[in-house]
TrEMBL record:
Gene Ontology process terms (BP): phospholipid catabolic process
Gene Ontology molecular function: any one: phospholipase D activity
Classification lineage: Eukaryota, Sar, Alveolata, Ciliophora, Intramacronucleata
Reactions accelerated catalytically: a 1,2-diacyl-sn-glycero-3-phosphocholine + H2O = a 1,2-diacyl-sn-glycero-3-phosphate + choline + H(+)
Organism annotation: Paramecium pentaurelia
Sorted UniProt keywords: Hydrolase, Lipid degradation, Lipid metabolism, Repeat
Pfam families listed in its UniProt record: PH, PLDc, PLDc_2
EC number: 3.1.4.4
Protein name: Phospholipase
Amino acid sequence: MKQMANSLTQQRLRDIQYNKIDIQPLSQATIKELIGSLNNQVFDQKFEKKYSNYLNERVFLFKVIYDGQSWEIRRTIGQFQQLEKDMANNIFYKIFQKNKITGDLDKEDPKKALLLLHKFLKMITSNEIIPQSALTFLEISCINLPFKMKEGFMEKKSGGRSTQRFQELKQKLVRWKKRYFIITQQSLLYLEGPEKDKCQIRECLSFDADFSFLHGKKETGDHNKIIISFSQRKLVLKAENLTAYIDFMYALFKSLKESPYTKWHRFGSFSPIRTSDCKWYIDGDQYFEDVCDAILQAKETIYITDWWLSPEMYLKRPVDVRKYAQSSEFLYTRLDNVLKLAADKGVKVLVLLYNALLSFLYNDPKHSKMQLESMSPNIRVLKHPSQAIPKLFSHHEKMVVIDQKIGFMGGLDLCFGRWDNQKHLLFEVHPFEQLWPQIDFSNSRVRDFFDVRNYEQTLLKENEPRMPWHDIAIQIKGDSVIDLSRHFVQYWNHVMMTKQKKKKQELLHANDLKMEGFVPTDTSSFIDYSNVIYSGRRESLIQMKQPILLDQIKTKEVQIEKNQTIQQEETVIQEQSNSQQFIQQQYKDFYNYQMQEKQLRQTIEDDDEEQHYYILENQNKQKSKIQDEKFDQIDEQDYEGMQAKINLEFFIPHIDMNQNQQRCVTQLARSSCKWSTGIKQTEKSIQNAYLSLIKNAQHFIYIENQFFISNTAGNPVKNLVANALISRIKEAHEKQQRFKVIVFVPLLPGFEGEIDQSNSAVLKVQLHFEYQTISRGGKSIIETLKQDGIKPENYIQFFGLRQHELSPEPNSIPVTEIIYIHSKLIIVDDEIALIGSANINDRSLLGKRDSELAIIVQDQIKVDSIMNGIPYKASKFAHTLRTALYMEHFDMKYEQVIDPLSLQFEKESTAQANINTRIYKQIFACYPHDDIKKVSDYEEFKANKHLDEYDKLKQFIKGHAVTFPLYFLCEENLNIKVTQKEYLAPEISFT
């Protein structure tokens, strides 16, 4: 393997020698002018006074174009003279250059000097065999990264990792090593040297908002020293002279200025504002089918994060149980086998799972890991957090990324119980072609999942209906997938570091000078394909050999309105992506596919005992096109024009999808913190986005969420969503605006237990906090509005969803069940939507509890619509999603739901929801219902059901919407009682 790495590296050096290197015309500036162009205080006045003559020295600048990349070189006259001296023994140079070119440059006319130097460089690069001294001068090594700022030697002090022990002793044994550094727009990495026998990546550290460094004698004790700090890494560097120091500092400042990840973005998010093609999904049928197809088409990598993953889940339905149930035949639509198909082609499959304790939850991540990893050595599964000290909170994000080009995210885990369609059937309609085979036919309200390894079991009894599942998800193609990938590798590397540290619970972080950059407009950038190599001191970390790297990812920044971040009671924190930006993964047999398209490079840990790793470098370089003669801008060929259109197969027949492409402005947001991703400061950009969207809503707000728990519930709830809604409604009332908020939440929490049984404590405490938020306790939304003389029903309405059906023959009994709303969605003004994994509760929104992902989507395509009776230009993505949901929930036509503020729509939708609610009560006497004000009322209430009236009344039930019962159990104390075992759990675990 090592010989293979060296062989491929040598081939790469031969490629360098025989590829044309183009040198562009030179320009010049003084060192002081060069530094001044950065608008940064690089040197203090004392330094400038001491080195005033040096700072006025000329620097020659020129562009090198090689292998599709372009970068700037800065060289002094002395450096040119040294190069010519090094070239003196070169035969080619001796033949064609009789006289020295660089000797008397100081005496030459400036314009003539530039021409002479350009001629000198062109002559050197015209040789088929270019000496190493010239390659180093031109900053060409065996690694040609995109958007390179600098290559060159620096002295590096050993140590600096937060995981190293015996730091005091090691400081006494400190040593300095000469290393070859590469600075790009997004990262800093170093090698032993640029030559073919030393071209081994030692480490790569990525820039982020938490990056800081100290420089200069006052801060470091030496004019030529720099101390660079990352989240879990500190580098101490020293230049051999002042010229090298200034050049390195210039490149460092410039790269930080241009990196998209070195500043806070809108809503305090780690993610810049992007452009992407987006497709929404209502419910899981089409979503899981598209995920399946994308996995099967994967060529390089698949990244998956889930709260729960069921390897035996079928992605495409129906499933012919006659063929599959008892057969060992390859089950090609089952998740584990779909991933195996991809892995067998050489695709790297990386899975991150929430490590739930079986004593608390049924997820069984151990089974998921064992099953998936048994399918192929190219599938790797990590679980987090450690079970040694159980955590109250979870990894809750749901994400699939294919080849870093297509992303799927939202509320749908790849697990049992999630597949459904908009019919929301309660029973199977065919004995063999099943939609919910085996354990997937489930109802967590009646009987929760258990022993999920026994997936062939049936959980429900005869005539017990499944609980339908309503959810929202999204597919993304384009720039925001870059940020999904960045989140994944940060999460992955954090898990790897956590495994390595074992007993160490705290990470060392830098807290020095903050460096802020900007998101360049119309500039492509890359997350560099590099790797963080850990110390190798933990056997568990190196039990397999090859770490996996994040391949080159293309980005394109979009700069839009800047003043969009709101002020909050707490400081909005920008995410600091982990300094280890790239995935480390170990496989035993990984290189069994298409080696001719990859370059294998050996990497060695620099400061610790020698441990050998191998990384894959993409050899298919992205070709660039130079736009102007000054070569100030490089656009990637793949971004000439807009990206390929997406075929949006919306499955609501009422909507006429004349245009399939939906080009949207997108931005990722997340809830993330130290325990979940290792970042220094907590990010709560999802809550920030919610608050901003609500505050800036002009006409209406539509919300679907699994929970609705906010600060009006009182202590200990802290998120501010309810306050934001109250403030916006009050503003509308004061201004006499037509304004409406529609909220869909589950009629009951999805926990096992009946209200009159002892096992319903968790169900009731969830209801307690939801009702305290909405309508009870004195400070709820509805009570607060009433206290201010506002009629709540004029501004805010709450709904749930319910379904009915006859059980299969021969019994054919009428049954009903709630449709469980698992969505995490807000749509504002048919203009902007937020879709993700985050619930409206503290667990999801505070940032330091559950980890979450969401995406904010604003369509660039406008469609004709109506708002409050007036013609209105709506964003296509938000408008089509909202109207599709209204049509499903209320069983209406598009023309009826086009205007969300229509008084006619409000009248008809409210009336139909009331009718549905009354009929369900009349036939089924089902709860929750406003007539059940205390548990003791339930016996009398359920005795008044009339199943015999089902055939007569069912025709009047339209859609699935029913009114949310604001007075259900209003005379009960729903909070956990001291005598219940759940009382031992911290209260915040339920909020």
